[in-house]
Amino acid sequence: MYLVDGNNVMGQQVGWHRDKRAAAESLARELARLARATTRRVMVVFDGPAPAEATQAPRDVEVWFAGTGRSADDLIVEIVKERADRTGLVVVTSDRRLRDRLARLGVELLRSGEFRARLDALRD
What we know:
Layout: E1 2-5, H1 6-10, H2 20-38, E2 42-46, E3 61-65, H3 72-82, E4 90-92, H4 96-103, E5 108-110, H5 112-123
Parallel strand pairs: 1-2, 1-4, 2-3, 4-5
């Protein structure tokens, strides 16, 4: 399973901050394409509360929002800690502090830029 730091991966795209909702929806569609191509489960976590007018997430992607008062990083760590079996779990982030926290939990880490390149390759 891929567990994706959504804001971190969105940050790999120029101009993503101009319309964060559209960027998140676009990323979710790309993650669905990856899930279908690799047959791996994909979960993405975004900072902040869910948008008031949330659109339907692609069925191949589980979308989480950290909510108010907690960061996506904290939610990602909680999700990892709740998994008894972390075999095959790949966390996608380039956030150094999050990577340090996760390294102690024994999960595989993948940098956002490398992951972004994989997503881009699926478009071709």
